[in-house]
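Lecture 7 notes. Example A: sequence first, then its structure tokens.
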Amino acid sequence: MKDQPSRKRWTSTKTIRTLVIILLVLACFFLGKQVDWLLTPVQQFFSIVGFPIVLAGVLYYLMNPLVDRLETKYHIRRTWTIIALFVIILGLIIWGIVAIIPTIRTQTLAIINEWPKYWQNASSEVNHWLNDPKLSALRDQVDQWNTDTSKLLNGKVTKYLTGTVSSITSVVSTVTTVIIGLITMPFILFYLLKDGHQLPKYLVKFIPDKGRTSFLQMLTEINTQVSNYIRGQLTVAFFVAVMFAIGYWVIGLKFALTLGIAAGILNLIPYLGSFLAMVPSVVIAMVISPWMLVKVLIVFAIEQTIEGRVISPLVLGSSLAIHPVTILIVLLAAGKIFGLLGVIFGIPGYAILKVLITHLFTWYRHQSGLYEADD
């Protein structure tokens, strides 16, 4: 009789649902790798149309709440609202090109040109700090790491130099894809904002009457999960960029604007982005002075405190209801399979899969009748 509660816990609906979700997600990754020959044409297709669609989708989730509010509360036609927003965005883009982009371009080129010197000087500073005999083992590890890093970078440079023709072709292809995407994206975004709210009504026509309510509920949950994540992450990233840029400017760190914007962009990678953004700031600060390094670390500590205690709870909350360990596992798996795009879009992709599998399991539970005792 003592084993009864334990057996019931392991056979409960919640436990089985969790195990099924994990197994099906792993199965999707495994099958995707096994039939990559079949997915190659699909991948090539989405490499062309994916960029404008994804960009339009992100902007849709940012702009649609305002369009909906103006239509429902003030009875302004969606078309006029969309056109007005497009004009405002175009004005902001022109202002950014004139006022901000030149500064970012100048600072970025300076960082790229001076980075080898910064890295070498920072390594020398670290070795100087590690001259203490008590830290000899750690110094040897740092020297080995620097040697391995140099060999890796030299190998990458040699590889790209020997493949100059293919690299140029790849760059031209990428630039062409980006230009085509930027041209087509506004048209996709316009029709998403204009008619996107009618998409569930169109899709539900293909679902039997008995399942339409559940299908609409599933679409609503997916839309809520994705919209909360996109709006939340971009809002937090904006505040992170502003805080870092202001903090670096206050302490007098070089390239404050560019480093702040880079920190905001990297913050789109959950948990890891802020620490990755610290690498160039710490390296540059080490070259300037030990006191500058201390000030950079203070800025980082203040930013992390404000973000973790104020901004993220207010903006994100627990909207996705995903455990931090699960987030890290998804990031590792998605990054390994899909690269940088997997790291950026792995979490919303997992949230969508979670909703789909949860509804599929709920349907199976009611159809099979195997879990009536749990209800």
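Example B, a different protein, same format:
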Amino acid sequence: MFTFLSQDEIGELMARHAQEPGARIPHHALASDVTEWVRPGTANELRGILKEVFSDIDAAELGRTIEQLVSTTPKRAFHWDRSRPPKPEDLFVAGGLASSKSDARRLLAGKGLYINRRVPLAGAAVSDTEVVTTAQGKFVLLQKGKKTYQPLRITGLE
């Protein structure tokens, strides 16, 4: 890690991260620290932008959106194997938003596909932390363009 924070400060940040991983406390601290070293005096100015970049989608809001869409979209499911996490391409093909993995990669390169309202990195494994638990089960929200949504039911993570 490239920072001038002390080991104690890093330890404290990591302890807070263990308690609240979604808050991304060390990410914000490191971004602020690096920004201050690169461009002194601008860390506070850029804090809002960095918060927006690093912020997580509100899980409760995402869960409500998924629950509303489940009854109005085709039923699609994907079996998630923790030992071999899926790539975004696998999820979009299973969700019916891409005709093939190469089609999914092309759409991902053009930033036209989203998982839980974020553009994923093509070829990178999708973390099971992306899975949202609702009253109707476990899902990821797939999106193609601005208007096409598909909740994808996740099995295998029970």
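Note on Example B: The beta strands are 77-79, 113-115, 132-134, 137-144, 148-155. The chain has six helices and five strands.
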